[in-house]
Amino acid sequence: MDTVSAETRSRNMSRIKGRDTQPEKTVRSLLHSMGCRFRLHVKNLPGKPDIVLPRRKSVIFVHGCFWHGHPGCRRASIPATRTDFWAAKIRGNRLRDEQSVAALEKLGYRCLVVWQCQLRDKAALGRLLADFLNLEDAPEPVSAG
After folding, report:
1. Domain ranges in the chain?
2. Topology at the third CATH level for domain 19-132
3. For range 35-48, the mean pLDDT
4. Is 22 or 4 the better-scoring residue by pLDDT?
5. Is the CB of residue 33 less than 8 Å from the CB of residue 139?
6. Is residue 41 over pLDDT 80?
7. Residue 122 and residue 141: Cα distance in Å, rounded?
8. What is the pLDDT of residue 133?
9. How far separated are the first and last CA of the chain, in Å rounded?
10. Residue 12 has pLDDT above 60, yes or no
11. Model-level pTM?
12. Which among 19, 32, 62 has a CA at the least distance from the CA of 143?
């Protein structure tokens, strides 16, 4: 049972941002500290990737564990109320994500998904980004918030 009214829940959910979220800003800050230059939310690419590195023909999606159903993550559990709605919503998000990645790869882009829970360990995230972008001589990323 939900602890707030339907109107309050609707108002709360409507305020959740879809872009320029704190996880996105953290990844962008790490990339910037590594000397990478990128574009944001490129509309003419499938799925409007969160971060596009045109010179490297690479894209990075920053996914919230709940909204995109991160397998095995504790944050990805389905709420106890309206389970059918939430299961369908998250299943649809995952299907759309898969289609976007497939379309981008068909265009020759390399894709990386960074999950919200990966942001806890900034050093590991920095290594993941450096490996993905083949930055052998990349400086250690500075702490990003």
Report:
1. 19-132
2. Endonuclease; Chain A (3.40.960)
3. 95
4. 22
5. yes
6. yes
7. 8
8. 94
9. 35
10. yes
11. 0.83
12. 32
